[in-house]
Write a structure and sequence with these properties.
Low-confidence stretches: 52-56
Order of helices and strands: HHHHHHHHHEHEHEEEEHEEHEE
Radius of gyration: 51 Å
Strand content: 5-15%
Helix content: 25-40%
Structural class: alpha+beta
Number of helices: 13
Amino acid sequence: GFRRIARMRGPLARRLYGTPRATQRIAQFAAGKLTAAPPMPEPTHALVLDTVHGPIKAGTLTTAAVHKIPGRAGFEITKPRSTAMLARAGTDSPQAARFRTALLGLHADLEKAPTPSPPPPALAVPGVRASLLDALAPVHSIPKRMLARIRGDLGTRTDPLETVMWAPQFDQPMYAPLADISSELLLPNVGLITQNTISLLQTNNRFVESYLVGLNHEMARELLWREYPTDQRGTYFRRFWDFRDVGGSAPPDIDAIDEWPRTSSLGSHARFGDDRVVLVIRGDLLKKYPTAVIYAVEAAWPTGTGKRELGTNEKLPLFRASIDPEITFLGFDLDVATAHGSEVRADNKPGWFFVIKQRPGEPRFGLDVTAAASPATTWDDLAWSNVDAGAWIDVGHALHDVAISDGARWGSTSADMASILYQDPVLIAVHATEMLR
């Protein structure tokens, strides 16, 4: 409201600046010659001490009058209505001297003339105008008004009312939308992988980073178009691979893009640094046994001579991806050189095995497809050819080509049949040298 009435062509401005008389009054006010009110008059019934009549005579409230008071040798301050004798004349007693000194100080203060008020400073009209406009500017007035209405700790920010630049983050693995467009974009010539095989691939950090940079750039443009309150520096997509099997605490694939050094290159901001080894499995194995345990085991050289064998150092997959319906990728924290190792024992680089193991807690029951020996000497060697069966097993039919003498008996009890038909968990270990050049 004040800004409206004080505008340059408003009613107040016309009254103040419209006539010479108004301009003259402003100049007088600025020079201190014009006051807001006349001087304060003396009160009509003021009490002047010098004219007081009664016990105190006129002219007695001065320092000169105090000096004229004769000395009192026996002066003593007593309680009211005491029977002390009146003070006799002479040199002041110690109490009289202190009393006289105090009385002189009191009357000296009463005799002082009041200090005149300093003249008011001249009003600088241009400066007042500039200060007033600056104080009424929205950049100052609106934050001040808003801060008066906000309660709580606003932190130590320079501008407590600055726009909150928050950026959303999406934890979905972004390889999936790429594969939905075309599996060739995820892995060129993916169709050339033979059915029911395993092999090793290598990640391409440069491609992953360029893809995620493009995603984040387009997302920033979309948020800008929709007037989302962000400063366009957020990294909205930081995951390319699927990390859900290793928990939600896994760090993202790339660092925040706004923190990349200007002189860095694509492929140098990945979580793992160098490119990682990826085990690819194509076929019916994981469709038939989706709970199979897959991991990597560091190889070890046996004593003396012999091929590599499984060691004790294990690594679980860090990430995974899949192309429906039958291709699965499992990434490990290994580079190609470490996974391959060296054929020279002295190098002490035996490389790594990749293991596919049936989950021990999920037993299977059945017979071998083909006989391992003739005759079969253990129940583990029992095959379908040893059983006269059609579409199902008939425990009433005797076995043939069998020479087994352990405690379980065919067709005796359900416990014996479970022991006979139990299939030991399968474990397959393939060294990286069998899948790499």
